[in-house]
Amino acid sequence: MRWWDIDPVLELEKDLFPEDAWSRGMFWSELAHSRGSEATRRYVVAEAGGRIVGYAGLAAQGAASDSGFAAVADIQTIAVARDLQGTGLGSLLLAELLRAATAFECSEVMLECRVDNIRAQKLYERFGFAPIGFRRGYYQPGNVDALVMRLTTEPDGGPAAGPTPEQGTESTESNG
Q1: Looking at the DSSP assignment, which residues form a beta bridge with residue 120?
Q2: How far, in Å, CA of 23 to CA of 110, rounded?
């Protein structure tokens, strides 16, 4: 994602998340941390037919240290246009974020998902995320709870990169 993608991303954001859409400033702030050697963010867009049909973002924090703490990634958002939900685009976006988490050397990936977004929860579970708790009233102004999910490090040193073949793919949206 680049700065010129913000306006079309905002249109999609407002359509998919009318009550708790991110602002232009929030996207600018995230993109400011996505370039250069000190980057801690990875934001991507998906395009089809000359329009942005999906986007996703991840933030990494921390670093491996002598104390044994490692970097942790947090999926900030995944969104897919309504007419392309169920096509596997959400899985592709999530897989790209998990590759970024591996590049950032994260030992785990966290996310929040609306408790009423079962479709998103199933997508995350197919990728190996497990529920670990709730955040009451996380999504405002609707006061909707969030399910907190976590994916831990795979034996090869990075988060899982996708569902197993028998699990298939399905698209969804989440806004964390």
Answers
A1: none
A2: 22
